[in-house]
Amino acid sequence: MLINHDTRCALDAVIDLVNTAPEGADRDDLADVDALRRFVERNAISDIGTLGERDLTAVRAVRARFAEVFATAGSEDSAHRTAELLNAMIAAAGTTPRLTDHDGYDWHVHYFAPGASLADHLTADCGMALAFLVVGGERERLRRCEAPDCRHAFVDLSRNRSRRYCDSRTCGNRLHVAAYRARRREAAS
């Protein structure tokens, strides 16, 4: 599946958003408006005005809906539920496709209306990026890390769809080292 720059940026942003409150964790990395500003900067989200508490509340609600998309995306039985969630989100955001070239990027499509709130911006662009994966028959690429103490969301863009961990250098390596040490202990006994 060919994923263009815009779609990749939107996928990265939705992953970062969902992972600000990892599944099963008691933490929220969007604790205040400053954290929301850092999220916007980290993901180079353009056309955003002044952020406030209302934006924070709305983005947290969007995050919960995207987390639900990841929860439903994995099984074949839930294909319609995933599509329903995305359709409802994209429609509610008032999706308005338009061509633009800004900040040194060539022509690309934004799906949010000019002047849209951050929540609508994320819903439209990230929702469309996820919709492209569904249309491409790639829903199974939306995953959760298999490390039992992690559960971060990620999009498996590996060629053979075999990625199991959000980050092979941390979660994957940690589990491989633990398995190696367990084998060594077993062999020593």
Notes on the protein architecture:
This is Zinc finger CGNR domain-containing protein. This protein is mainly α and 189 residues long. The chain has a single domain, classed as Jann2411-like fold (Orthogonal Bundle). 52% of the residues lie in helices and 6% in strands. It contains six helices and four strands; from the N terminus they run H-H-H-H-E-E-H-E-E-H. It has helices spanning 5-18, 33-42, 53-73, 79-92, 118-135, 168-188, and strands at residues 98-100, 108-110, 142-144, 153-155. A hairpin with a 7-residue loop joins strand 1 and strand 2 (108-110). Helix 1 (5-18) crosses helix 5 (118-135) and helix 3 runs antiparallel to helix 4. The N and C termini lie far apart (48 Å). The model has no long low-confidence stretch (mean pLDDT 87).
Which bin fits the share of residues in helices? 40-55%
- Strand order, main sheet: write it out: 1-2
> Secondary-structure element sequence?
HHHHEEHEEH
User: How many individual helices?
Assistant: 6
CATH class: Mainly Alpha
| N→C terminal distance | 48 Å
Q: Helix/strand/pairing class, anyone?
A: mainly alpha
At the fourth CATH level, what is the homologous superfamily?
Answer: Jann2411-like domain
In oligomeric terms, what are we looking at?
single chain
Instruction: Return residue spans where pLDDT drops below 50 for at least 5 consecutive residues.
Output: none
Beta-strand percentage range: 5-15%
CATH domain fold name: Jann2411-like fold
Q: What is the 3D form?
A: globular
- Main sheet attributes: strand count, strand direction, barrel closure: 2 strands, antiparallel
Architecture, according to CATH? Orthogonal Bundle
How many domains? The number is 1
Protein name: Zinc finger CGNR domain-containing protein
Domain Zinc finger CGNR: 141-184
